[in-house]
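haha ok so turns out i had the wrong file open the whole time. this is the CORRECT one, sorry everyone. sequence first:
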Amino acid sequence: MERARSDQPMSEINVTPLVDVMLVLVVIFILTAPLLASSIRLELPRSQAARPGQAPASLALVVDAGGRVYVNDQVLTPAELDQRLAQAATLDPDTEVQLRADQAVPYGRVVEVIGQAQKAGLARIGFVADSAAAAPVPGR
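then structure:
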């Protein structure tokens, strides 16, 4: 009398249940994906006041290594700078000042320019810098 060797553990992975579960998940995702999008159709009213994608006003302010101030590539004296900043604040108080200052400019000079912008009523000031990867390495 011979016995069948059914006592041995099965060494192969049964992937059929895994495939079944994955197929069920795929079907669920296929059915629910269109439902995730907004299904409400609207006819929005038209308005002259609404302007999509209108970029906020900005003013490019540059302080070079000599301490001279440029607005849109034009050199200005401190009095002219005050006038130009006040004019920009009058046109749009949310105008953003994009301040670019040379790294050799003393901190005090940069603070003076920021003070002039704030005095004129421009509170949104952004500092522009180059990324470290793009900056040239000194001594090379």
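The domain at 58-127 is CATH 3.30.420.270 (Nucleotidyltransferase; domain 5).
again sry for the mixup
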